[in-house]
Amino acid sequence: MKDYIKADEWKIIEEGFKPELNKISESLCSIGNGHQGQRANFEETYSGETLQGSYMAGVYYPDKTRVGWWKNGYPEYFAKVLNATNWIGIKIWIDGEELDLATSKVSQFSRILNMQEGFLERSFVAKLNSGKEIKVKSQRFVSAKRKEIGAIKYQITPLNFSGKLETELFLDGDIKNEDANYDEKFWEEVDKQATNEVLCLTLKTKKTGFYLTTATTFEVFQEDAALSLETHIISKEKYLSLKTQTELKQNEKTTIYKFASQVTSRDVENADLVSVAKSSLQTAFAEGFESLKKEQAETWAEKWKHADIVIEGDIKAQQGIRFNIFQLDQTYTGTDERLNIGPKGFTGEKYGGSTYWDTEAYCLAFYLATAEPKVAKNLLVYRYKHLQKAIENAQKLGFTNGAALFPMVTMNGEECHNEWEITFEEIHRNGAIARAVFDYVNYTQDKEYLADFGLELLIAIARFWAQRVHFSQPKQKYVMHGVTGPNEYENNINNNWYTNVLAAWCLDYTKETIDFVEKNYPQKYENLALKIDFKAEEIKKWLDISQNMYYPADEKLGIFLQQEGYLDKEQILVADLPQSERPINQKWSWDRILRSCFIKQADTLQGIYLFEDRYDIETIRKNFEFYEPRTVHESSLSPCVHSILASKLGMKEKAYQMYLRTSRLDLDDYNNDTEDGLHITSMAGTWMSVVQGFGGMRVRNGELYFTPYLPQQWKGFSFRIGFKNAWIQIKVSTELISLKNETTQEISLFIYQKNYTLKANQELKIDVKKIEDNIFA
Amino acid sequence: MKDYIKADEWKIIEEGFKPELNKISESLCSIGNGHQGQRANFEETYSGETLQGSYMAGVYYPDKTRVGWWKNGYPEYFAKVLNATNWIGIKIWIDGEELDLATSKVSQFSRILNMQEGFLERSFVAKLNSGKEIKVKSQRFVSAKRKEIGAIKYQITPLNFSGKLETELFLDGDIKNEDANYDEKFWEEVDKQATNEVLCLTLKTKKTGFYLTTATTFEVFQEDAALSLETHIISKEKYLSLKTQTELKQNEKTTIYKFASQVTSRDVENADLVSVAKSSLQTAFAEGFESLKKEQAETWAEKWKHADIVIEGDIKAQQGIRFNIFQLDQTYTGTDERLNIGPKGFTGEKYGGSTYWDTEAYCLAFYLATAEPKVAKNLLVYRYKHLQKAIENAQKLGFTNGAALFPMVTMNGEECHNEWEITFEEIHRNGAIARAVFDYVNYTQDKEYLADFGLELLIAIARFWAQRVHFSQPKQKYVMHGVTGPNEYENNINNNWYTNVLAAWCLDYTKETIDFVEKNYPQKYENLALKIDFKAEEIKKWLDISQNMYYPADEKLGIFLQQEGYLDKEQILVADLPQSERPINQKWSWDRILRSCFIKQADTLQGIYLFEDRYDIETIRKNFEFYEPRTVHESSLSPCVHSILASKLGMKEKAYQMYLRTSRLDLDDYNNDTEDGLHITSMAGTWMSVVQGFGGMRVRNGELYFTPYLPQQWKGFSFRIGFKNAWIQIKVSTELISLKNETTQEISLFIYQKNYTLKANQELKIDVKKIEDNIFA
What we know:
Strand content of chain A: 25-35%
Largest interface: A-B, 46 and 46 residues
Number of strands of chain A: 34
Oligomer: homodimer
Number of helices of chain A: 20
Structural class of chain A: alpha+beta
């Protein structure tokens, strides 16, 4: 755990130059706009420790799978998130000496991510080996409004000399992935165009054939006067640059503006790439940096208007939640149904793929509540479009009759993970994808989605479960063998409670959805049944399974069992584990982890969270009190579920601790891996901890419920929810729960089980002392 | 399955040129002498499909481990069996046209492994593209008497022309392993010396620094006259050759003799390598090919005298058993305690490492009975010398107090396998190593071994088991979680019956051995206890475990359960599995294999085989009848155990089927993988099937028992056993069991529970009809 980021409500601030933490800061201050993004690498040359990374959404490379021991069914290729053309580069020479913070004496260094306005800022004073001192200030953003555009303002002031400044502004496509399995470079050059003002580099990926055109231009000012400089073009393999030189005067600012446009063949025909890149670049250039930056601030203000959560009296918590929301909204904007939420967003290349079960199990709720319904819908459509590949994936594993197994990790619908215990066994992902259909429809009441897309996907998933279980003669129940649950610290177990519960629910929900669609959209139903050769007899088997599923439990303890035989393990609590042995995934061998009772992330509790209305509060409490002390939270997805359940159980201190852990996971580098990139998807869990945990928000049968309470450490908090065309602000303070309908759409909701109706623009204040059975006390 | 090897009692015969089967034949006809060996590659250039392989015992390379997903505790390096200098090469040009069977018209081709005399022979007629026809006959062997020496006789006769013959006799060290993880070459050149008569090439391995010096010389005869030829030296990186030319006359034989000596730094100081190689080469050369070949035949005759098994009336069975014995004796001679029995011997590079649990569980019995006691003892000492590394290996996995976990695969004592489900979980290997101590002492009565080596190893293993189990509260028994049993088609299971039984036995046997050594070798005991900090209290815990171990069983079926919950699986029999889905390890995904009830190899039955005297015949029968129909035998180590138990149960037809499967596994390419090399270690299982199965041989408390019977398909069979300084021949025919003491040492033994004493050179004939309760009927 680290604690070097300065607390601030709206900014991520690194003060002082800390080369040993540079890769962490590069991750934390990453910028992105859903289309492109990059780590907070320096513009100028840096020979110290750095992970260079610039990424384009949806552009991937199928790197040949690397494995020690091949198993049938492994994918041949692993879709890697690609490091793409570096457009930020500005090399600087002062009287022939290159600026490089690794070899200079650096002072007054700061790197700041301004989340309110959506830009990255850096400033420092560097004393070169010659003794010359310069002050540098840079600002950079990728435009939230114009997805192709990025812009940099780079200011240099000589402090103790006058002399010659040389600059080289470049586009470098000769980059590689650190995680390339065979040290291969993934890009090939297609085209290069250079004038003295504009550079334009077109590359394409091997195998996948994605084209990327990057165009850049620049202008230089001294104080407020634009300079007209001679430029010299340098052209190398996959590399273009413009070299210039000018005179610096002591204490006078020289400002370089660099603009870039990045256009890919995902959006534009290959033949038009160069012209589109150049024209969008030209428009942005004409607009100018300051104007673009103002537009950026306005665009982010609009995003914050809906998504912001305000926390009063706890600046670290405030910083944490905004950081999470900011990164989520940088990663996914919901405008392109071919995209999804990569686990590292635009902040690193690790893990590859863009889509995990995280999307459905954690992220969907955030986008449902804070964005237009189409954003969440696009996440669902994304999976629907992969249905055929999921059916093929299941076929590879021996399933028939149109059964689908969605991949554990994917970019294009094909599986690209290859640990058998995960790829083949962590099948609960199928359930999360079905559950997302339910969540979306429950939230939006867009029931036509079921007829158009949802049911087809549900049937394919139901067919999978029906084949994946078998009937146990000794138990006289349906059992599911050889699975890995959400808790990946157990492999190849039998009857994971979570997976069994979810599978049975899928079967029931599919049956219910069939009834609904058959009745309300008979023609669509008939067409679908024909298309997928569906026969009503299948349902009988499904119901037999769901009614006779085996659920391991211990009656004496009054708990569900994470898996069959869990109590046979040696029962030790995390509290009794020496700190020196944690995290166990770094200190213990795998077999020891598997044998232990320690839980990586919420598993049984994840199931209780999903289906909480089935269980009385005592059952939930017993399970929480049993499993939580055995959970090491070595997955970023774990603390949020615990926080929400702790809130429900009135365990406020535990809920708050778990909240802090999820919200500052990356900021404080809890798991010692922030340098690889951020944990984007788990950030949605932080949002859930506040809104579903402290806010107690639930949607039941299309109705909105809240049971808010204020954590002791806070003076107040507020958030907004978009629901059925209304936007409601919920504010919680020590005395009041305020609800404000910010739209003209009347809205009904429940606070602590009591129904209220908020008329257009109405504000309602509820005295917390008057709420019976609340958990404020 | 293939069936192209011609049946013959003493030879492996390939007739007709079959390029598509070449790699299989290269494996089958491999030659070796325990020190070096090679695949039956052609001497001349061959541009068709081939796996080139020449190997030196104990010379390995630690190839950097390749893995998809790293787990703590994985070894950094994997010890690879190294392809070494190719000394057999003789390039042939006829009037400038190179001989290459892939581009010639080949007739009258045969490749024969002469097992009786220990050499490889090949002959063919090749019609070159020019239309010129030559007849070639080559013979080759590596000397069983002089471990450094190999020799070739290569005869060429022009059939339809006279013309120019050019030859290039080479040493090629610029070779690589096909299984190199990073396409790296493992050898570096150290020294090259060339005269017009002798070439001498010294290489060393990277990292491990093994030196290998290969010296070669030659002579050429036409008809019976030695030629004095001009030679031209060619020297390249890691390559030396001598080029010569001469005139061929139609229908006149030209004979090239090539001799090589291979010496490694394992046996000789680096400084002496060249001189030792040259002098042993010189001696062999002076002896001459025909004389060396005669010596080879004599040496093999001596080996066969003890090891041969004669089968009458079933030529395929006869060929099979001799092939197995021959390959075992080619692989391991027991003269070097640093060596072990590689799973592919000198026949391929696959699997790496040299030592698996196969050695103790399958091979030891063969060497105990057919070789001097020191041969088997060396196999035990080998493990003893690795004890410290096994303790370190266990420490890496979190064990303390001198507990040892021997590696799954090793060359130098370090683990070099890296699938967690095998490396970390397939811990029954520890039990096999302890059991080998028991078997050796039981057979040889060399009880001092226990005091000198055995006990220290047993205590380290007992300490491992004591930590590896834990007490289950629900079961009130000791349980062992997270293991993989011999049946590798189950991973991460709880309470594998075999492993639990073996672990408890280890604890008891260690206790018993402590008592024995303490009483009989008190000083040695005291020294040992001091050395390993052993306290008698440890024993109490061990006995508590062994007395309260959990053994899964099903009372109704009267069987032991392979693991907890086995009956919960869907119960299908192999007979009901479509042939198109077999072998399941090639047709099914891993999760499906794991979920199925199908068994890769004997598991529960392996335990019953080990401890058969504990169980009544009905229990054994019930388990056999339950498990055998569920076993797919996709490990080469499976059929032999089934064959032995079937013999015990009087299931003669089953025993014979299983015998055939193990004995001709490679000859008939059952598993479609002979081309990678032979399954050397499982060949010992074939021997066991005959001697322990059909012969019913057992050693109980140092006494020898037989319950022989004759398979219906045979007219008779006989084998020899070395026991307590006597050699006994056992002959079984339709009417008689004949026992012959071939030594002057009196020997006592039991036939069908009846005790007989055989005086010096005595022969005893027992009429099978007079044996009560025999299974001849």
